[in-house]
């Protein structure tokens, strides 16, 4: 792991992490580019890798999984983004690395983790714990969607390190991912006051709740819908020689939809739950699309004694 500390224009301590997966070079290139662009940390300002930034704040840039980056492979022993919070005594390299990376990010006011995938555009953000810092990051990024992953895995960086947002910046290996990711990082630094080249901008962001992974079986895979595209009830989202995933519930959308991005899943099902409002424009919560009726009255999904959520078993029909 390589840690590079740079000057901040404000007092916040923020971090940007690239190279969590060694076969995603965009994050590595973005971190290296930012290291060249930002001013070196002034030792008299109290910053440094000992974690004490004093009043000056700092920007911490991290290249996480250096052996995997060197080998151009996703990981060496186990997926780093499935190994948090880690184990310092583990024989698995990434599990030990997760513990060290967690320590490097301790006390940060905001963290942005960079990722790419084989999935189709558009880029989007991911959070697991909605804090004021996370709201500021998400609504300040140039993305239209954010995935609420709080009900999914509990072993990712954004699910274990407070104030962390992950961002899928584009297609793996593309120049577009590097350019978009760089602009997204600058936006992140602006909204937390780390750079002052121009004022930050904020906008409402559509929140998509991550529901469940959609498994692959084997044979030739086919995916019929793109990320965040509404899947009509009764339509087949994805299929291979083992599974046919026919959606039997309205309102589902794909997340990380890909035929060859993962060995074991086609992606995930999600549901649009509402919007996240910018700081100063609303409370710290997701504003549901159906919160108010046509006459402005609040709708209570529990009025009929149910919570308004479908049973997991009803979300899709899988046949083999």
TrEMBL record:
Entries under PANTHER family matching the protein: ASPARTOACYLASE, SUCCINYLGLUTAMATE DESUCCINYLASE
TM region positions: none
GO molecular function: hydrolase activity, acting on ester bonds; metal ion binding
Organism the protein comes from: Halorubrum xinjiangense
Location of the region described as Disordered in the Swiss-Prot/TrEMBL record: 279-320
Succinylglutamate desuccinylase/Aspartoacylase catalytic domain boundaries: 13-174
UniProt KW Transmembrane keyword: no
GO annotations of cellular component type: cytosol
InterPro entries for this protein: AspA/AstE_fam, AstE_AspA_cat
Protein name: Succinylglutamate desuccinylase / Aspartoacylase family protein
Chain coiled-coil ranges: none
Region forming the signal peptide: none
Keywords: Hydrolase, Metal-binding, Zinc
Source organism, top-level taxon: Archaea
Cofactor(s) this protein requires: Zn(2+)
Amino acid composition bias (Basic and acidic residues), ranges on this chain: 280-302
Keyword Zinc: yes
């Amino acid at each position: 792991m390589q840690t590079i500390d740079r000057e901040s224009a404000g007092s916040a301590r923020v971090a940007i992490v690239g190279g969590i997966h060694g076969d995603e070079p965009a994050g590595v290139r973005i971190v290296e580019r930012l290291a060249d662009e930002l001013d070196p940390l002034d030792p008299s300002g109290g910053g440094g890798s000992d974690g004490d930034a004093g009043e000056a704040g700092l920007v911490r840039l991290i290249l996480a999984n250096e052996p995997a980056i060197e080998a151009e492979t996703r990981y060496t022993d186990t997926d780093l983004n499935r190994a948090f919070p880690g184990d310092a005594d583990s024989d698995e390299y990434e599990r030990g690395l997760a513990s060290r990376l967690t320590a490097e990010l301790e006390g940060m006011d905001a963290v942005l983790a960079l990722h790419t995938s084989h999935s189709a555009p558009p880029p989007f953000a991911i959070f697991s714990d909605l804090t004021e810092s996370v709201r500021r990051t998400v609504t300040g990024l140039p993305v239209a969607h954010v995935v609420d992953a709080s009900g999914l895995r509990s072993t990712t960086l954004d699910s274990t390190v407070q104030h962390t947002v992950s961002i899928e910046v584009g297609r793996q290996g593309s120049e577009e991912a590097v350019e978009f990711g760089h602009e997204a990082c600058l936006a992140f630094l602006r909204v937390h006051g780390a750079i002052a080249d121009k004022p930050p901008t904020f906008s409402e962001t559509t929140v998509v709740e991550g529901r469940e992974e959609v498994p692959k079986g084997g044979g030739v895979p086919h995916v019929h819908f793109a990320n965040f595209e509404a899947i009509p009830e009764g339509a087949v989202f994805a299929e291979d020689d083992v599974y046919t995933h026919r959606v039997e519930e309205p309102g589902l959308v794909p997340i990380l939809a890909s035929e060859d991005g993962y060995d074991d899943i086609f992606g995930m099902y999600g549901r649009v739950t509402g919007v996240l409002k910018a700081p100063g424009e609303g409370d710290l919560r997701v504003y549901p699309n159906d919160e108010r009726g046509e006459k402005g009255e609040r709708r209570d999904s529990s009025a009929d004694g149910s919570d308004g959520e479908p049973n997991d078993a009803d979300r899709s029909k899988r046949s083999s």
